[in-house]
């Protein structure tokens, strides 16, 4: 029991580090960068509006539009790896979780929200026949393409980089039942609940009936203290510097509502993150 309490406290501290660096610290930098009082007022109004929806309405309110996401992530591209691939991510076990999930990819693979290519070195070249990386941000894709060239990985695998909106463009661009594996790591939280529903529906259609959808996502912790902290801060952190990520989504419920079946689910860091292996059909 004592060991369990110590582990929960460790994850709580690590999550505070990660989430506040992503949210509050970034917000502070944005305020310092605001050169006019009117700009500062706009930022404060944004915080108050989102905070009100979080505590008074008790429902998620924040979601980036595709246009906002493209612009924001173009800005984040050059420094994105410092956080999502940095020490805080490692302390929370994210790198281990990525490696375990991505190693299951087979055949023709589609990765949405591919970002700067943090997963590129996790793929087993002898198990995949092609890799298509999709992101809404051309800046992020340029970083991923540079990483692939510099690291000299996946040399035997055809790799494509495509700018697209994963909430609406997948079926139109690729057709139905086109991939053996569809992968996403930590993108759904940026889409909001409605965008997540649309994206999961797109994934369900583009993966083959015999294929798998592999997801690693932010989720509400199973620890009561952490869960309450997430509920109280998720929308605010997303709105003021957290890269648009609302980190307390009920991803499992959204997967089932999309018509997919969860074959395997794993918790990491007392449920702060979860991986899912899904089938395209629920029957």
UniProtKB/TrEMBL annotation:
It comes from the Eukaryota. Gene3D superfamilies: Vaccinia Virus protein VP39. Residues 1-26 form the signal peptide. GO terms for molecular function: methyltransferase activity. It holds the Pfam family Methyltransf_25. SUPFAM superfamilies: S-adenosyl-L-methionine-dependent methyltransferases. The keyword DNA repair does not apply. Keywords: Signal. Residues 109-211 form the Methyltransferase domain. This is Methyltransferase domain-containing protein. It comes from Seminavis robusta. The lineage of its organism: Eukaryota, Sar, Stramenopiles, Ochrophyta, Bacillariophyta.
């Amino acid at each position: 029991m004592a060991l369990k309490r110590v582990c929960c406290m460790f994850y709580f501290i690590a999550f505070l580090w990660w989430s506040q660096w992503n949210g509050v610290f970034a917000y502070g930098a944005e305020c310092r960068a605001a050169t006019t009082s009117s700009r500062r007022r706009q930022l404060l109004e944004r915080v108050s509006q989102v905070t009100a929806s979080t505590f008074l309405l008790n429902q998620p309110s924040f979601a980036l539009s595709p246009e906002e996401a493209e612009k924001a992530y173009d800005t984040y591209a050059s420094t994105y790896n410092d956080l999502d691939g940095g020490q805080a991510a490692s302390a929370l076990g994210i790198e281990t979780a990525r490696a375990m999930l991505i190693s299951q990819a087979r055949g023709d693979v589609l990765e949405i929200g591919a970002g700067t290519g943090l997963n590129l070195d996790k793929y087993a070249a002898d198990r995949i026949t092609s890799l298509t990386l999709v992101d809404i941000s051309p800046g992020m894709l340029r970083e991923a393409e540079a990483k692939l060239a510099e690291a000299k990985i996946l040399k035997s695998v055809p790799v494509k980089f495509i700018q697209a909106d994963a909430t609406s463009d997948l079926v139109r661009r690729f057709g139905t039942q086109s991939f053996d594996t569809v992968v996403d790591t930590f993108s759904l939280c940026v889409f909001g609940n409605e965008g997540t529903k649309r994206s999961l529906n797109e994934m369900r259609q583009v993966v083959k009936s015999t294929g798998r959808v592999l997801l690693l996502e932010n989720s509400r912790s199973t620890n009561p203290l952490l869960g309450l902290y997430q509920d109280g801060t998720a929308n605010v952190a997303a709105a003021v510097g957290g890269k648009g990520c609302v980190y307390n989504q009920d991803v499992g419920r959204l997967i089932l509502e999309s018509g997919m079946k969860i074959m395997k689910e794993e918790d990491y860091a007392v449920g702060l993150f979860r991986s899912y292996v899904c089938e395209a059909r629920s029957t």
